[in-house]
Amino acid sequence: MADQKMKGKTVSLMIMVFIFQVLFAGLRGCFADQPSRKRSTVHPTAVNGFGSSVFLPVSGNVYPLGYYYVTVGIGNPPKPFQLDIDTGSDLTWVQCDAPCTGCTLPHDRLYKPVKNNFLPCKDPICAALHSSKAQQCKDPNEKCVFQVDYADHVSVLGVVVSDNFPLRLVNGSLFNPLLAFGCGSHLQKGSPHPPPTTAGVLGLGKSTASISSQLNGMGITKNVVGHCLSGQGGGFLFLGADFVPKSGMTWTPMLQNSFDKYYSSGPAELLFGGKPTGVKGFNVIFDSGTTYTYLTSEVYQTVLNLVRKDLSGKPLQDVKDNALPICWKGVRPFKSVQDVRNYFNTFALSFTGASNIQLQLPPEAYIIVTERGNVCLGILNGTDAGLGTSNLIGDISLQNKLMAYDNENQRIGWASADCTRKLHGL
Fold it and tell me: Is 152 a catalytic residue?
């Protein structure tokens, strides 16, 4: 969920627990090109392919909103719902009038389920949500109940339903598939910050329960998810392979281990200014459901020390700002990241298991300028945030890049891109 934390979206990496008992009828429910080459900007164009692709305009920003979202129609006739795009989770869910406890939307904007669209426990999608045998249904015909617990103690609880998602593909075809998603009827907020205005989450993860996997299973699109998030706000999202450039992309293999439920890669080595930092051997998760980048204490402390040392002698002073924990002020307020980026150096992740493929992290991929005109570090301590050993690459570090999560070929790719550019014919 895109609940906000420190004026930004909280970590969406979550522990998913799915309970299938009648007693619980509710719902808690990356970087650019290699440095040895001149950076270029790809210009993806749509071409007809395997069922073509779904293209959705994206709204939102890293700061001050804290999340990116799309608008999708659900039902017949369709009703529009704004959903936070989240590659860090699988199940799509919306706030649901079943009735709802803790929902943040007005009553008339909630999804209203109908009697015959509840998914039974025997459905394969429900089975994909089981995390252990103890959580499997006692009765295969009872409703498929789900619970999602997030790292910031936000929870969603409810039942899985199916309904029409009218889609127009870029090849002009019209489809109205029945897709499974969560009807969130119990929301519990664990953050002191205001909740987002979105209706729920668009789960784009790797399991068969995700929207992209369902569309692929129906033969409508290839199992490829991609997004291009503009640093100026907005961008686009696509499901299918038609917007992945034939050249200009940097690719790294997806991990196939305990991290395989997420879009993860590694092992990686941290570089600063093109030089090794001594931190290496860690894995990363690409998570569009997280505003900022979260690193384990060891990696985070190295980043913070390097930044502070590099700022020595420069006209920046520590300052407190409600936006983020680590901030600096200049001689006069800054108006944009461009005003201050030259004071900061470039980080990079070198994926040592993939022929030293590098994911560049220039200053605009890890700093923001706040409403007060201060500059703040958009990299946070994930261990303190309860993420354990996970390193999350969030929206701030995914901006101005075409990101592709290719489940067909088990790889993750990126390239610098103009995410504000309107694609031809769309």
Answer: no
